[in-house]
Specification:
Shape: flat
Helix content: over 70%
Strand content: under 5%
Number of helices: 5
Radius of gyration: 20 Å
Oligomer: single chain
Number of strands: 0
Distance between the termini: 34 Å
Structural class: mainly alpha
């Protein structure tokens, strides 16, 4: 009976799969909306100065962060589905091959590192003091180093 309950319990993970997909849709639509709204403002005001170009570039860089979070939500949804819900030997999506928890961790960490890099670029363009850039760079570097160490030691423990 417990075995049957555990087997059926995996279907509870449909909730985070659906939640992750909704997150993906919401974040991607929000990012696209930000770009459309900013472009509309530029066209409406007829502002084609160097300052406007810099603001548009900053908006695009910050919006890429939205898209990376959307990709993270999608990868998470596919990963949870493939790991716990699907009973097929064949993967649902062959482009995102996830067979073990380590595969999912690696993909998520890769997206997080990319999001941290984009976040740093946004902070660099907003910073007024060099110390702010230095502190942000140190903090993000430490996070990336910690994630790399995690991946390294997690990979060694599997072997």
């Amino acid at each position: 009976m417990l075995r049957t309950l555990l087997v059926l319990g995996r279907y509870l993970l449909v909730i985070p799969v659906i939640g992750s997909l909704l997150l993906t849709v919401g974040v991607v639509l929000m990012g696209a909306g930000v770009i459309v709204e900013r472009a509309w403002n530029v066209l409406q005001n007829g502002e084609f100065s160097l300052k406007a170009a810099k603001m548009m570039s900053l908006t695009v860089v910050q919006t890429i962060d939205f898209f990376l979070v959307g990709a993270l939500g999608y990868i998470t949804a596919v990963g949870i589905y493939n790991l716990f819900i699907t009973s097929d030997e064949e993967q649902l999506l062959k482009r995102i091959r996830i067979e073990k928890l380590k595969d999912l961790e690696d993909k998520i960490i890769g997206v997080v590192v990319a999001a941290l890099a984009v976040s740093f670029l946004g902070q660099v363009s907003d910073a007024t003091k060099m110390e702010d850039i230095l502190y942000a760079g140190i903090g993000i570097s430490l996070m990336i180093a910690a994630l790399c160490l995690f991946m390294y030691f997690a990979g060694r423990s599997e072997k």
